[in-house]
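Fig. S4 source data, part A: sequence.
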Amino acid sequence: QVQLVESGGGLVQAGVSLRLSCAASGGTFSSYAMAWFRQAPGKEREFVAAISRSGSNTDYAESVKGRFTISKDNLKNTMYLQMNSLKPDDTAVYYCASKPTYSSAYYYDDDQYNYWGQGVQVTVSS
């Protein structure tokens, strides 16, 4: 059974940085395409960033492009989301997700992912 555990969230002021981590156990981490999603109060869950199984291919939502960086350490079984220049609109619960795959693809839709973490709160004050 694959388990994903997010950490690194918190309450910060606008303009600062945070790094989220998603530690995986069970399964073969290097075979997972992975992603970060987020859900703000009263809103639907939305795509933030995705990464291929090798970590060589990435993509981002327009709202975070240039500020967030997704990465994946297959030796440490951990995925990261480096968030810079945080804005109040980034306030949300952030979820990591994984999908076993043989391809180099990444995926944008949450229904394409098989495993999810419990989420971590990120609150950005103005």
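Fig. S4 source data, part B ends here. The radius of gyration is 13 Å.
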